[in-house]
Write a structure and sequence with these properties.
By secondary structure, the chain is mainly α. The chain has one domain. Helices cover 64% and strands 0% of the residues. It has 7 helices and no strands. Helix 1 packs antiparallel against helix 2, helix 1 packs antiparallel against helix 7 and helix 2 packs across helix 7.
């Protein structure tokens, strides 16, 4: 099981690789994917720890925005449950959960950009899941 800092480093490395690929190819959708991967720092699968004594780094980031309370109900999920941690399923759950806060993103991103951002987040979640298995 990887530490939270390892998850963060891998997430940022993935975002950097996607951003570099976007700059190299000029593919705008890759920028959205990089942003989605970087969003893994805020939308970590470990948000299911928001009710634990030590919490998680993502919860602390939300708490700095005065929104830590928002993830308390999500913290009722068992840690590493399929709803929170499985690739694609966990990503979809957190994206749906965050819609009341981030609905304005739909207006900022075109449909392709929104899908690419969600794909980038799903890719970051997949790496998180793989690191937890090692």
């Amino acid at each position: 099981m990887a530490k939270g800092s390892t998850h963060d480093q891998v997430t940022m490395a993935l975002a950097g690789v996607l951003a570099g690929a976007a700059l190299y190819t000029g593919a705008g959708w890759l920028i959205y994917s990089a942003l989605g991967a970087a969003a893994g720092l805020l939308l970590s699968p470990d948000l299911d720890l928001s009710n634990s004594a030590w919490k998680c780094k993502a919860w602390h980031r939300w708490n700095r925005l005065n929104l830590g309370w928002y993830w308390k109900p999500y913290g009722w999920l068992p840690h590493r449950s399929p709803i929170s941690h499985w690739p694609v399923v966990g990503t979809a759950g957190r994206v749906i959960y965050v819609v009341p806060i981030g609905f304005w993103l739909i207006y900022l991103l075109d449909p392709v950009g929104l899908l690419a951002a969600i794909a980038g987040l799903a890719l970051a979640d997949t790496f998180h899941w793989l690191l937890d298995r090692l």
